[in-house]
C-alpha cells in the first residue's frame, strides 16, 4: 500500500522558501540555545506568553498596553487573549492527538462572554466544518516540510478562512504558537511570533490577503513573510536583553 502523499510537498519547491525557513529556524535555535539554557524559567515562559497575548489582542482590535495587560487591566479583547495564553501549553498533547478539539478549545477560551455558549468552539457552518477537518488532517499528516511551514500554513488558513464565528485571527495566532511548541521548535514557548506580526503589521495583513487570494504567488509571498516573522519572533523573546 502506498504511503499518503505529502500535503505540504508543494511549498518545498517554492523558490527561496526552504532556505528562508531554515535560516529562521537557525535564528530561533541560536536564541534558545545561547540565551536560554541556563536562564530559562517558568517566569520567562509566562512573560513570553503575556507579550504574545497583548500583541495578538492589539492585532484583534484591543487598545490595551502591555503594562495594562500585565496589571490585569486590559480590555475584553486582551482578557480573551490572556485566557488563551494561560491554557495554551496544556493543549500540546491535545493538538498532537485531537487537533480539532484543541482548535475548538482555543475558540472557547477566546469567545467566552462574547458569544452564546452553543456557538463556542463550533464552526460557522458546514463549509467551515470542512475547513477545520482539513486543517486537523494537515496538523497530523506526515510531511517532510519543516514545523515552521506547518505553523505558517495553519495560521494563514485559520485567519483567512475564518471557520469560527469570532476571534479567528486570535485563534490562528494561538494555533501557530502552539504548533511551534508541540513540534519541538520552541517547547517552552519563549519566542514571541505575535509580537513579530504586530511589529510587521502592514506586511502581516497584506500577506494574509495574498494567501487568501489562493494564488501560488500569494502563497509564496506569505511563506517568505512567515520566515521573516519567525526570525523577528526570536528577537522579541524575553531571553533577549534588547526585548525588554
SSE order and pairing:
Blueprint: H1 17-36, H2 42-60, H3 66-70, H4 76-87, H5 92-97, H6 99-111, H7 126-140, H8 147-161, H9 168-182, H10 193-199, H11 201-212, H12 216-235
Helix pairs in contact: 1-12, 2-4, 2-9, 2-10, 4-6, 6-9, 7-8, 8-9, 8-11, 8-12, 10-11, 10-12, 11-12
Keywords:
244 residues; Fic-like fold; globular
Walk me through the structure.
This protein is mainly α. The chain has helices at 17-36, 42-60, 66-70, 76-87, 92-97, 99-111, 126-140, 147-161, 168-182, 193-199, 201-212, 216-235. The chain has one domain: Fic-like fold. The protein contains twelve helices and no strands.
Report a brief summary of the structure.
This protein has one domain (14-33, 40-243): Fido-like domain (Fic-like fold), CATH 1.10.3290. Helix content is 65%, strand content 0%. The protein is built from twelve helices and no strands.
Amino acid at each position: 500500500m502506498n504511503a499518503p502523499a505529502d500535503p505540504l510537498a508543494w511549498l518545498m519547491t517554492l523558490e527561496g522558501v526552504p532556505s528562508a525557513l531554515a535560516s529562521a529556524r537557525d535564528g530561533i535555535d541560536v536564541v534558545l540555545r545561547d540565551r536560554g539554557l541556563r536562564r530559562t524559567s517558568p517566569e520567562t515562559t509566562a512573560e513570553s506568553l503575556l507579550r504574545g497575548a497583548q500583541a495578538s489582542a492589539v492585532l484583534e482590535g484591543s487598545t490595551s498596553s502591555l503594562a495594562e495587560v500585565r496589571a490585569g487591566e486590559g480590555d475584553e479583547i486582551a482578557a480573551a487573549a490572556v485566557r488563551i495564553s494561560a491554557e495554551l501549553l496544556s493543549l500540546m498533547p491535545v493538538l498532537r492527538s485531537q487537533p480539532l478539539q484543541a482548535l475548538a478549545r482555543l475558540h472557547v477560551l477566546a469567545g467566552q462572554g462574547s458569544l452564546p455558549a452553543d456557538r463556542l468552539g463550533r464552526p460557522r457552518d458546514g463549509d467551515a466544518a470542512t475547513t477545520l477537518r482539513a486543517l486537523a488532517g494537515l496538523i497530523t499528516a506526515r510531511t517532510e516540510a519543516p514545523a515552521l511551514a506547518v505553523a505558517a500554513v495553519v495560521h494563514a488558513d485559520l485567519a483567512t478562512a475564518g471557520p469560527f464565528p469570532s476571534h479567528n485571527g486570535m485563534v490562528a495566532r494561538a494555533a501557530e504558537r502552539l504548533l511551534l511548541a508541540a513540534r519541538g521548535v520552541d517547547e517552552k514557548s519563549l519566542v514571541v511570533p505575535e509580537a513579530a506580526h504586530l511589529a510587521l503589521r502592514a506586511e502581516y495583513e497584506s500577506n494574509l490577503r495574498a494567501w487568501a487570494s489562493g494564488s501560488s504567488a500569494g502563497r509564496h509571498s506569505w511563506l517568505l513573510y512567515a520566515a521573516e516573522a519567525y526570525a523577528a519572533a526570536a528577537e522579541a523573546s524575553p531571553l533577549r536583553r534588547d526585548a525588554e
